[in-house]
Amino acid sequence: MDFNQQIGFAILEWKEIKQFSAMNIKTIGEIQSFYALRYFEIACSWYNTKGRYGNKKDQWKFTLSVDEIKTMFKIDKDAYKDRMNNFITKVVKNPLEELNSVNKDFQMSFAKIVENHKTVGFEFTCDQISVLKIESTDSEELKEEKKQLHQLV
Fold it and tell me: Measured between alpha carbons, how far is 95 from 122 in angstroms, rounded to an integer?
């Protein structure tokens, strides 16, 4: 894979500063929709909360209000006003399904946050996909089996 020289320098700079979240570039390349890409970026930015702040060991969560999502995704505030089911399908459910189909690092799910019979936000849960580590004590047969499983994922 060839990188533009400026992009290469930017990546090295980001690595040194360590204020940015790591993202799998292969996953980024496979994502087709803007919304799925934004969810991937947001989820990666919350990765450091995995196993902390009440999250399980290989899990992290974050919440976004409907208004925050509309702002982040540049959706007009009056769009989907009386059509929350369409909003959920087009802006939340379908992009997460796309992301989960290409992302090999974690899977995302969501739950609606409802107040007074109205969806006001969403809690997003990211579950890290467990990877079978190849140990030096593994038999050659087991090592080969794990390598094949890694290729499938």
Answer: 14
